[in-house]
Design goal:
heterodimer, A: 218 residues, mainly alpha, Serine Threonine Protein Phosphatase 5, Tetratricopeptide repeat, two-stranded antiparallel sheet, B: alpha/beta, Rossmann fold, Hypothetical Protein Tm841, Chain: A,domain 3, 2 domains, 9 helices
Amino acid sequence: MSYFLNKQGEIIIRNLIDTIIKNKEYLSEIDGAIGDGDHGINLNKGFTKFKNNKFNPEDDFSISLEKLGSVLMMEIGGSMGPLYGNFFMKMSQEIKGKEKIDKKTFGKMLNEGVEAIQILGNASLGDKTILDTLIPAQKAFKEAINNKKKFSEALKGLKEAAERGKNSTKEMVAKVGRASRLGERSRGVLDAGATSCNLILQSMADSIIPLLKEFDTN
Amino acid sequence: MQRIINDPDNVVEDMLKGYVKNHSDLVSSTDNPRVLKYKSAPIDGKVGIVTGGGSGHKPAFIGYIGKNMVDAVAVGEVFSSPTAKAFLDAFKAADAGKGVACLYGNYAGDNMNVKMAIQMAKSEGIEVKTVVANDDVASAPKTEREKRRGVAGEVLMWKIGGAKAVQGGSLDEVINAAQKAINNTRSIGIGLTSCTIPAVGKPNFEIPEGKMEVGIGHHGEPGIEVTDLKSADEMAKLMVNKIIADLPFIENDEIAVLLSGLGATPAMELYILYKEIPDLLKDKGISIYKSYIGDYFTSLDMMGATLTFMKLDEELKDLLDMRANSMGFKEFGE
C-alpha cells in the first residue's frame, strides 16, 4: 500500500505557497474579466502571511494545513478567505495525529474539504465556482480507489479531472458569487476560484506523487 | 496609474490611519486594526449598529460611524469582504448587552464572513441579527430580489436603523425598521468609466469612449446594458423610470432621494444630473421629502452616479429626521 507521511508535509506546503505566489497576477487577471480582479492578490496575501508568520518547516502536513486555513479564514476576508480557510482546516482535521496518509485517508480529506465548501458557499456543480474543479476531482479520485488503482494513479486521475473541471467553467454561466449578476455575460471566461483550486490540487498531487515512491511496494 | 499612495498593498491601513487622525471627534480605533468604532460606543441601553464591507467606497463604510448612526465598522481590503474576525470584533465594540444589528450589503463574501462571525458571537453571548441590503434594481430581476446587490441605499438603511436604536428600539424593532427601509428603497447606477484597484494597477474593466454602462455595480460589476453616452437629462429620465417601475413608486408617494457620485464625478455634474429629477417625479405625482446629493457611496475612481429612492411613511420620516452626525451623512434639525 502506498502512502506518504504526515511529517513530509513541508515540501507539499512549500510548493503550494510557491504556486499561489507565482500565479498571483494570472489569477487576478482572470478575476478581473468578470469579478473584481482581486482573487490573486488576496490569495497571495494570505499565503504570504502564512509563509512569513506561521509556517514552520518542522510542522507536519496536518498542522501546516490547519495554520494555513486559520490565516486564510481569520485574516483574509473576501469569499475565498472563508472558503479556502474552511477547506484546509477540514482537510487538516481528518489527518490530525495520523502518521501515514494513504489513498483512503487522502480521499476522506478531500471529502471533508469539499463538504465544507459546499455548506458555506451554498453552490452546486455547474454554477461556475470552485466546486466545478473540486467535485469532478473528488469523484475521479474516489472512482480510482474504488477500482483498486494505486494512490499515484488516483492522483493522476484527480489531476486530469481537476483540469477538465476548471476548463468546463469557461462555458458556464455564473449562478452564485459576484459574477452571477452578469448572467450570460459571464460566459466565455474561466472562473477564478475554479482556476486557483485547480492550481492547488495540481500542486498538491504533484508534490505527493514523488513522495509515494519511497514507500510504494506495488 | 497615477495615485497618491505609498505601498499599494497597504492602502487600507494608510487610509485608516489618516482617517482616525482627522476624525478623532467621531471615531476611535480598536484592538483590531480593521475595526473602527464610534468614540462613545458601546452606548448603554442601545442596540449596537454594525456594518462592514470592502474598502474603496468612501465615505462607506467608516464614514457612517457617528452620533445616531453606525457604532462600529469592519473594514475589508479594497473591494473585498472584511474577515469574520473583523465582523466579530465590530460586534463586540458595538454591543452594550442589548444585541447588535448588523446591516450590510448582499455580497457573497460578506454573507459568508458575517455568518461565521455570528456563530462566533453567539458562543460569546452576543446576540446579532442582520438586514441584508438589496436595493440595486439592475443586479437581478424583481422576482429574484434576494440576489440583488446592496448599493447606496445602504446609507438610508443605516440612518433609519441607527435612529431606531437611539429611540430605544429593541433589537427586533431596529431590525424591522432597517428592513422596512431597505424594502422601500431602490437604486440604480450608471458608469461612464472603469475604476482601478491600486494593488492591481490597471483598470478593472473597460467602458469604451462614448458609451455608458447602465446598472453598473459598486465594484465595477458590468451592468445590464451598454449604450451610447446620453445627455444628463436623458440619463436622469432613464434612471428615474427604472427605479420607479420596480417598487413601484406611485402617485402621492413621498420619497427621500439620494444621488451619489461614484468617485470621479465632479459635484457639478451631480447637480446637472439632479436638475431634471424633481420635475420627472412631479409629473408622476411623487414628491420629494428630502434629497441628498454628493459622494455617499463611491467605487474608487469610477465616473458615474447611483440614484436611490426610498418611499417614506410617518415612521420612516420621523427616523430620517432625527439629527445625526457622521463624516458621510449629517442630518441637521431640532
